[in-house]
Amino acid sequence: PCRHRICSAIPLISFFPTLASFFYLYPVVFRMEEQNHSSGKELQPRTRAESPGKKSWHSQAYALGAVSNFMSTFLTFPIYKVVFRQQIHAMAMSQAVQQLWHEGPQYFYRGIYPPLLSKTLQGTLLFGTYDSLLCSLSPVGPHSLQHRWAAGLMSGVVEAVALSPFERVQNVLQDGRKQARFPSTVSILKEFNSYGLWGRLSLGYYRGFWPVLLRNSLGSALYFSFKDPIQDGLAEQGLPNWVPALVSGSVNGTITCLVLYPLIVLVANMQSHIGWQSMPSLWASAQDVWDTRGRKVFLIYRGGSLVILRSSVTWGLTTAIHDFLQRRSCSKKELKD
């Protein structure tokens, strides 16, 4: 745990049936990794470490990650906002949509700037840092599962430290109960900056940091560990170039978000609170979420259907656009050479 003009070239509806093929391909995916290890054959253009002759590609990982995340964030923001309302108020999807509708279209994209900025930075850090760490851990590819997991885990830690303040501001902005008190991002920043130094961190910008750290590190590790093996396995089936990346990102995003969804709900609830009131511990916050959901798992997972859709579309688009830009960049460099 890719977004814009490329979508016109990507028939989204067609990739959902392809998800079913993942279960058929599951054993093939990991056989492919072993075959690539022995033969050295690369089906997809990967990182600089796997293309030692193209050193400039290493720095380009940051730019490609930024562009792909920017585009997918803008496209999927409406879905994200409905999911957030479900997480905060434990309401049905129809009620969340109706609540946003009654607030008026002028508030529909309220709160988009923090996620747009944070997700762009997220893509920059996530893909760029992962590529740098992977090259340090394994200078010569192909890379093992352990190296991909470790690089993904550490890149998720960097992402959490850098981007947690953006998510904090975004969650306050999206909470409909705080629109009167905090009508803009500036008003929230003024509130946080009125605290002392420790208060700015613990009660302000980094409230709910530990579940964010756990969610981001595990999510990044899962995504990068299985993205390439799934993509390579699908590429062997003779599918169009954009399908393996799209399905790989969709499958990874869906499974990762469903596994980590309780942490997502916990973060949303912890970060939506504001002020100097006594701040409960992580365990107390988790217990409160569990109690307010009637101690029922299905209420914790309320909004799960939209999470599947959002994760599939967001990570599918992100991976597909990133792969498209990567291929295009490699092709230009080959022509120049």
From TrEMBL:
GO terms for cellular component: mitochondrial inner membrane. It is found in: Mitochondrion inner membrane. Keywords: Membrane, Mitochondrion, Mitochondrion inner membrane, Repeat, Transmembrane, Transmembrane helix, Transport. InterPro entries: MCP_dom_sf, MCP_transmembrane, Mito_NAD+_Carrier. It comes from the Eukaryota. The chain crosses the membrane at residues 7-26, 61-83, 208-226, 246-268. PROSITE patterns: SOLCAR. It is a multi-pass membrane protein. The keyword Transmembrane applies. GO terms for molecular function: NAD transmembrane transporter activity. Solcar repeats lie at residues 56-136, 143-233. This is Solute carrier family 25 member 53. It comes from Ursus americanus. The keyword Mitochondrion applies. Belongs to the mitochondrial carrier (TC 2.A.29) family.
